Amino acid sequence: MLVGKPIPSHLAHHERYSRASGLAILSSDALSSVAYATEEILRTLLIAGTASLWLVTPIGSVIAGLMLVIAFSYRQTIHAYPGGGGAYRVARENLGTIPGLVAASALLLDYVLTVAVSIAAGVAAVTSAFPQWHVKSVELALAFLVLIAVGNLRGIRESGRIFAVPTFFFLGSMGMLLLVGAYKALTGQIVPIESAAAAFVPPETAPLTLFLVLRAFANGCTALTGIEAISDGVPAFKPPEAKNAATTLMIMAACAVTLFMGVTLLAGAYQVIPRQEETVISQLNRAILGGRGPFYYMVQASTTMILVLAANTAFSDFPRLASIIARDKFLPRQLANQGDRLAFSNGIVILSLLAGVLLVVFGGDTHALIPLYMLGVFVSFTLSQLGMVLKWRRERRPGWLGGALVNGIGATLTLIVLFVVAITKFTEGAWIIIVLIPVLVFHFLAIHRHYGRVAEQLSLKDLSATDKRHNTVVVPIGGVHRAVVQALEYARTLSDDVRAVYVDVDPHATQEIRELWTQWGKGIRLEILASPFRSVMEPLLEYIEITNDERPDDFVTVLLPEFVPARWWHHLLHNQRALLIKGALLFKPNVVVTSVPYHLRD
Amino acid sequence: MLVGKPIPSHLAHHERYSRASGLAILSSDALSSVAYATEEILRTLLIAGTASLWLVTPIGSVIAGLMLVIAFSYRQTIHAYPGGGGAYRVARENLGTIPGLVAASALLLDYVLTVAVSIAAGVAAVTSAFPQWHVKSVELALAFLVLIAVGNLRGIRESGRIFAVPTFFFLGSMGMLLLVGAYKALTGQIVPIESAAAAFVPPETAPLTLFLVLRAFANGCTALTGIEAISDGVPAFKPPEAKNAATTLMIMAACAVTLFMGVTLLAGAYQVIPRQEETVISQLNRAILGGRGPFYYMVQASTTMILVLAANTAFSDFPRLASIIARDKFLPRQLANQGDRLAFSNGIVILSLLAGVLLVVFGGDTHALIPLYMLGVFVSFTLSQLGMVLKWRRERRPGWLGGALVNGIGATLTLIVLFVVAITKFTEGAWIIIVLIPVLVFHFLAIHRHYGRVAEQLSLKDLSATDKRHNTVVVPIGGVHRAVVQALEYARTLSDDVRAVYVDVDPHATQEIRELWTQWGKGIRLEILASPFRSVMEPLLEYIEITNDERPDDFVTVLLPEFVPARWWHHLLHNQRALLIKGALLFKPNVVVTSVPYHLRD
């Protein structure tokens, strides 16, 4: 019920994106960061006092420029990898396995953070509109998370087309807001913002250093997240896939730059000061619309919706990337088969749990999560574009120098941002990602090595065919009852060499067994084992050992009647000995232990 | 290595007790309570100020009288139950199942508390001698606990005879101390005790109410614990068992009364005031011997030793009682076979964990644990003696009236103490036991009911013999490699009707399998299942279902090649699908799922 209907293979190709639906579905991550990017710049600048807030405009402009450069760089990736050019693939093909795995780790961490940050920001949009809910931020965030997770487990992605709604709703309502805001600003109708909430001014104002400006810049670069989404999803577009995807990317970049610069410029014009309990967008929204009217709530709702949608995209990206990595044997193979609902569900559950932990640990606060978010994003940006540069150089196709230059500039700029983020945000959480990436890469490699060794051991090389082997069936019994009779019936189907084994710990009980055996033994040999130490296990294991040694190349099957109880706690009352026997025989070659289930009614 | 050598059955009877060794081994619990019983009375009286401490002598005398009554009462139990008359057995036989189970619960809880209280008191004896260790009481207690538990797991009980040493050492050194103390007291050489430690006087002294005197009495009754030990162990004595046991009980009672009254009288004479960091025995010891000399340390050492020994006896009593209850099918049957080291080890581990929790929760403080201890003891006392009364009345053998009277007086007195304890100690922890006893009884009954229902279902009544049944072997494969080839070899030994099954999720891979099959298929039929939804599980389970329906009365065996990895974490990388298949097929009748192990080197 939770998992929903599977998708037949033959339908998978029908759901191709037009430019409009591609834009709607793949750009939510990139566009939604408009909801918090400007605020992140302002919050950092505020450390040096309100007088330094004017810097938001120049910093925002640099970031907008950077966004265009990266968009052009990724446009080339789309054409080079019409089959989908995720950072993992591009880095692995052009830079080697380790850089590929670094990109993969960065991306997986990124998806987790996309979920956490987007939900946190979505909740902030809600609590800005309804300040009384601010104290319940974490609970609200977890509620959103559970909603999205369950939706995905139920298979919400099947109805992809409805995702077009929030994106266009956001573009429309945000665009309108910015137009009205710009009109009022240009016609001198700006009214100062009233707010009961406290601003984020620290008790002592710090000096405006270059480091602080760089930190503000680093925080603002969160506007750049999500640009790569379209290049990952090229094959999902209608043909000509690459061309459509590239055009969509350009439209998206244009929208993102417009919205981000619009918010940034108006935040400057309306002199928005970041506050504890209300987002910058909400303040701007109120200032422009003159209070909390219907249109105000609509803008807030559209912001929440696109942020939830952004979180939702990570829920299909994470299992997909995990399955690609698993198919390359760097992750457990049960994640590889995307067709199995289970592989997909595993991914969703892992992603939800990790995002949930982040939301709780960081108190559902967007600002606290940003330092972790940025690092992974820029690691994958840099590796992906660096890979493109090497690809141009290797292939030397016509015009490669220009192409390499575009990607090279992109790579250099993102590398610089990466360093700025790593240095300015190190103590605020970026170190977690710096530690986690090598840890993940190490595990990827260990898994890969293991699968390699297993493949070697399983190779059919030098394996010679054998004759049909003998199978001795041993049935340890603790009494004669229906479950034992059933196990004996089963034993007789397996082999002509069946031996029931009973350990004598009490002469009376043994005599009783002997008598019952004449009626129920079905002609099967009954071995009574002496037990001087009153132990049941030791004589039994010894007997199996001896039986196995009789014919070293043949099989010994140990049949254990196993009760399948109707209630879980009844397990504690049964099968303990069977479990012990299984454990003791697990490492014996050519010994197969089989449980013959006997179903109890209650 | 931890568990030691098992004991052969034919040796078990050789270790019979003489009166002396019986006394030494079975009386540690009863004698060791001398170490804290007087102190418990004094601590309660101190609540009403030092002026009320004189009451220790009358209260102690009542308790000593009670001890003699109970001893005479149990003397009769020994003669009536020469095969061992534990409270569980006596109550169950004479009063019925529920009272028997109440006694059993009380006893099991008691053993846990014997361990906790004895260790806590043993640690107090150590920290009284070495006050600097007082802050580490809990750690010391846990160290003792681990020592005893590991000793028992290793099989320390095999060398039972060395346990005679601590008991006689304690009797000797304590007797000497009391003699010297009495001599000094009678000759007027008493010197006031100096102590840096604070007395337990509460900030405001309470009035000396009857309730307080009853509380002091209830606490002092801890001196009575352990009297029943000999009546439980009658068959372990040399013949004539009952006579030897009865004599030993009388000797023990005499010793216990002498020591307890000796300590109580001298504590009064030397005006000992209970203190936070030094036991009453240690203060008395110092006062009599004039400071911490070699003999002082010897007395403290002997006290610690007998307390540790008392804790140790619970380690053989607990698993023994559990096995008796399990044989009556009120506890999981894996506890029943005492011969198996494992049943015994389970008991020891459970006992140690529970005692460890108590020691930590109650801060390793004897005084805090006493309220929990007493209740169980007096429940089993009362039920056991009440059972004896009914037995006398039922059997009406010569002299039954006198016998019933002795047991009746015992039962009445212990019932009164039980009420006094339950009322005065309720809020201090006795409520925990009052809650736990019915909870345990409820579980005993539920387990019993379940085993009864299972026995019905397993009954051979109306079971008719069947012909040899057919067995269809299904081998799901995910490729062709050594583990699969081995599984096919094994499959061929089981049946002539073997079918390998492969789910087609990728036409290329399927073609490859078909080609390999011509070489490695061993003539076994290969079924290729279509999977429109790219799922592996669903077509497979459907195929097994259909195969099972072909011959509803016959068996279907599903063989799964299973990797046995060399390192535990490799489990995460394998066999996930096998686990799912097993889970999905667990409740299907006549379907047996077998893992054919393939051992990986690394």
Describe this structure in words.
Two copies of one chain form a homodimer. The first copy, chain A, has 602 residues and is an alpha/beta fold. Chain A folds into two domains: 15-451, Up-down Bundle (Amino acid/polyamine transporter I), CATH 1.20.1740.10; 471-599, 3-Layer(aba) Sandwich (Rossmann fold), CATH 3.40.50.620. Helices cover 63% and strands 6% of the residues of chain A. The first copy, chain A, has helices at 9-12, 19-26, 28-32, 37-45, 56-80, 87-95, 97-129, 137-153, 164-186, 210-220, 229-232, 241-269, 280-289, 294-327, 341-361, 366-395, 400-424, 430-458, 482-494, 507-520, 537-550, 576-585; strands at residues 471-476, 498-504, 525-530, 555-564, 591-599. Chain A has a five-stranded parallel beta sheet with strand order 3-2-1-4-5, sandwiched between helices. In chain A, 50% of the residues are buried. Chains A and B meet through helix 18, helix 19, strand 4, helix 22 and strand 5 of A and helix 18, helix 19, strand 4, helix 22 and strand 5 of B.
